[in-house]
Design a protein that fits this description.
The protein has about 120 residues and is mostly helical. It has 5 helices and no strands. The protein is globular. This is DUF2784 domain-containing protein.
Amino acid sequence: MFYRIAADGLVLFHLAFIVFVLFGGLLVLKWRHLIWWHLPAAAWGMAVELFHLPCPLTRWENLMRHAAGQSGYGAGFIEHYVWPVIYPAGLTPAIQLWLGALVLLVNGLVYLRLIKQWSA
């Protein structure tokens, strides 16, 4: 029971991390100290998508699910939870490149604005 709850909690944390990677720059506009959390998170998110790196959170969730007697999943978090809701056909390497570029674009625009605010 504990491992199942832990795995479910990790899924929620994983989703929150992805949202923070995408939109955490907006929080930095308001709370500047978050830049030290967001920059490494955004860099990791872009690296995972652009270089097709395995995310350790997915591995940990699968380990917890197996310990709870449940089956894990072979694909990554996005492919398993998010992608079927948005695009049921599946995630391709080309689409992952676009997702990485989206993270770069959104955060690049936010940080450009932040730099302009600091220099003004």
